[in-house]
Amino acid sequence: MSEYFSLSDCDVIGFDLDHTLCRYHLKETSRLIYESFTRYLVEHKDYDKDLLILTPASWDFCFKGLVVDLEDGNLVKLAEDGTVLRATHGTNNLSTEEIIKHYGSKREWKNFDSLNTSFTKSTKYYFYDNYFDLPGALLCGRVVDMLRKVKICFFVLFACPSEDAGWYFPSVKRDPGRYLQPCSESVKTWLRSMKSAGKVLLLITSSHSDYCRLICDHILGKDWEELFDIIITNALKPGFFSLVPQQRPFRTLVNDVEESEGLPSLDKPGWYSQGNWPHLHQLLKTMTGKPEPKVVYFGDSMRSDMFPASTFGKWETVMIVEEMEGEGIPRCDAAKTNEAQAEPRGKKGKFEDQGMKAPSAPSEQWGSYFVDSHKSGEGDEESQKLTWCCHSIHKYSTMAIPSVESIADLPLNYKFPRFCPNKPCTTGYYPRPPDSLLRKFQSQSS
């Protein structure tokens, strides 16, 4: 395998939608998600109204990559080998001694092998993998603080409401500009240039068709459908990548309603719902005229995008890691300009004054998303370990970028260094590695 990766070598270029092509105003969206979850618990499940009260400091708890142990109410941050680096009970930190009491002298989390090899959901734990999840982690921790049942909270937080139920979807539909950042002109030009170069462009999202249309109308413009050869909504990833007998058939849509009869195969490009990777693969072979078309897929979720696409689809994968921007990688000019133009008036100052942490920023309570210090016990020397999330990026991604804007102005034949087992862990990040990884590599080299 080459040490470099180039989009010009790919026949098919695919994208997830949320937090990949579509960037959200994370602070505003997080507040809405938390409020939506909490109002449901308070109004329909008789939970304490104090759950609705948050201080700006509360948001420091929101951290991508945490795992909640549903059996004891602990949330844990894991190293690449399953070692518990940090833990809380509810939102309260556990000391080194308390961690050892819970997980033994080696600080081993007992369900790590199950999570690490399959990324599947479990009745014993839940992995907070994306920005939609993070307000749920905060709420789950606060529910444990109030000594309520974790499993009830878990069920409520992750049961999918219908598009028009509850508070979240109606709020976004009512005022999309408050929550969604339009794509920059450079990204739109980049998408058109790939299509002009003969690439097959693919959009795969687990969002339903009406929500997908709402988002894309706002971020890409009313003619956005012309950018993609194939659009797949309600894909229910990671199940989309399942093989026989679990795979779901593709369905056509009429006025955003799925036809009851599934399709035996895909014979032409278009807009479809649900579906599966093997049938898509057959269509891509027909469209490209190649027995094994080379596909690259951009996404932000390890569980739904990177792991299944690389493991089952054997696709190249580019992970969007916004946490890079919190560790020394400046936002590109197009992204900064676009965000400033999209920001509703008066909102930025309100958040700055309140001191609310962005969910992608480093956390005082949880540390870096990429690297953390580890001490086995009192008197032991402190060492730096890669987090499990960071290790997974290196294992299942071809490369990592903070946003699609960061590469949109580059030529399609630009050669990116890819993650390689025989290369330093800093290789594979563009435009450069996050600060914590650089420091770890430099300390090892000195």
Class inferred from helices and paired strands: alpha/beta
Mean pLDDT: 89
End-to-end distance, in Å? 30 Å
Number of helices: 15
Number of E strands: 21
Radius of gyration: 22 Å
Shape: globular
Name the poorly predicted regions.
148-163, 345-353
Organism: Oncorhynchus mykiss
Protein name: 5'-nucleotidase domain-containing protein 1
GO molecular function, one term: 5'-nucleotidase activity
InterPro entries: HAD-like_sf (IPR036412), HAD-SF_hydro_IG_5-nucl (IPR008380), HAD_sf (IPR023214)
Which helices and strands, and how do they pair?
Layout: E1 4-5, E2 12-15, E3 23-24, H1 26-45, E4 67-69, E5 74-78, E6 84-89, E7 92-93, H2 96-103, H3 112-118, E8 125-127, H4 134-145, H5 150-158, H6 168-174, H7 176-179, E9 180-181, H8 185-196, E10 200-204, H9 209-220, E11 230-233, E12 250-251, E13 253-254, E14 257-258, E15 270-274, H10 277-288, E16 295-299, H11 302-311, E17 316-320, H12 333-342, H13 347-354, E18 371-374, E19 383-386, H14 388-396, E20 399-401, E21 416-417, H15 435-445
Parallel strand pairs: 2-10, 2-16, 10-11, 11-15, 16-17, 17-20
Antiparallel strand pairs: 1-21, 3-9, 4-5, 4-8, 5-6, 6-7, 12-15, 13-14, 18-19
Helix pairs in contact: 1-4, 4-5, 11-14
